[in-house]
Design brief:
mainly alpha
Length: 116
């Protein structure tokens, strides 16, 4: 069960980051921090991202009860990073450099070593 909730936490965190980016792409007045914050409060995509962050945090907290932080944190951040980069490339049409690709391979190798 912990693996399922951990997977859910990783996915929710990645989706939250992607939703925050998509919500930020909508052109709004952003002259100062207060205007940015005001726009966030009425942007349904950003609100959805915040909800995903909250749900992901709850799931991750459960995982931390069951798993060592020294194992959970590297997996959470690195796998989440790989998901965000791949979705950014596929959906948002962001470029991935060969250096980024090599880094992702190293991250996956490192996660495999940590999780063993």
């Amino acid at each position: 069960m912990t693996y399922i909730i951990f997977t859910l936490a990783i996915i929710l965190n990645a989706v939250a980051n992607i939703l925050m980016k998509v919500g930020a792409l909508k052109p709004k007045e952003a002259n100062d921090l207060i205007a940015v914050f005001r726009n966030m409060l009425v942007n349904p995509v950003i609100i959805s991202g915040v909800i995903c962050f909250a749900l992901g945090l709850a799931a991750y907290n459960y995982v931390l009860i069951k798993t060592d932080l020294s194992v959970a944190y590297p997996i959470m951040t690195s796998v989440g990073y790989v998901i965000v980069v791949l979705v950014s490339w596929l959906v948002l049409k962001e470029a991935i450099t060969s250096i980024q690709l090599a880094g992702m391979v190293l991250i996956v190798a490192g996660v495999w070593m940590v999780a063993r």
